[in-house]
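Researcher: Good morning. I'm working through a list of sequences from a screen, and I'd like to move beyond sequence-only analysis. For each chain I'm collecting a predicted structure so we can compare shapes side by side. This is the next one on the list. No need for commentary yet; just the structure.
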Amino acid sequence: MKKIVGSVVICIFSLVFISWGITGHRTIADIAERHLNAGAKAAVTELLDGQSMADASTWADEIRNQGAYRKTSSWHFLNLPLGLNHEEFVRTVTTMSNSNVYNEILKTETILKDKTASKDQKTEALKFLIHFVGDIHQPMHVSRAEDKGGNTIQVNFNGKGTNLHSLWDTKLIERQGMSDQQLAAQYDHIGQQKIKAWESTPAIDWAWESYQISSRLYAEVDQMRGRTISDNYYQQHMPTIEERIEQGGIRLAAVLNEVFGNYKTSNSNRVPTKAENQNIICDKVYDGRYFASSGMTLLNLGAAYPNQKLTVVIHKKIGQQFGDNPAEYFRGKRICVRGVQQMYNGKPEIVIKDASQISLEK
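Model: Good morning. Structure tokens for this chain:
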């Protein structure tokens, strides 16, 4: 019983710091992709093997409860006391010994600039960076620990109960009723002068901006009658959400443009063409996992995780052809996959980009 309770507590704690939700993260990535220079576009395409930045933007949330990645839960936020001035804030954040969203952004930048880092290391760093730049721009991810970033502060929105963190993650954005691409098109309209100002701001100030906003949000909710979110609250704060998402996209692009501005493809790091390095592997699917949030499916061939001989990665558009849960569709069946085999975290994998690459073994 104690083990069950402990597991539930761990799961709850690991879920409460998921920022912006799927739509917000994807919108930030969509905006960033619009502002990449040629070098950054080439690098991102190669490192993500053609996957869009939007599709990669939620990966850090999807893996945070898996095996060795459990340690990454604290990388998504900053816990701070309220009432710090800018000098105190900077000193507190820059001297923290624990991993947090600010210092993880710096670490991922370092890895991406490291000429000795492997492609796998850079790919992982890029996926983390895409996500963490989004996290640090969500105000409730730079807030106080005692209420888990607003997760324990209950409010009413549209006649339903929610919490302050969830309100700013998803509820306010979802009310607009648009996809991430539609939101990116609507939000991404600022002038070059403001873009240059945002691009020149260091990451510590991204966190400071969020801290200032979350401090105001705490004060507002404490004074709110019945803690009911009014239409006036929505109208008042949506411009802030739009600006934070737009800032996240512009600044993410700026980081990638600076890191990869002179990037050139080479025989050692370019993505092989379809005619090169093709592998055809047939084996039994022992287990797998379908991620409803992104539509991605992972299949483990040859043995169950973590002893699989090969992992097959199926993206949403392809997976939809195999039902609502492709992992269950393929479980226990023998399949053949064709594609470029690459290493990811020490394990071989093949990414399925076309339905013709995967079939049931005859």
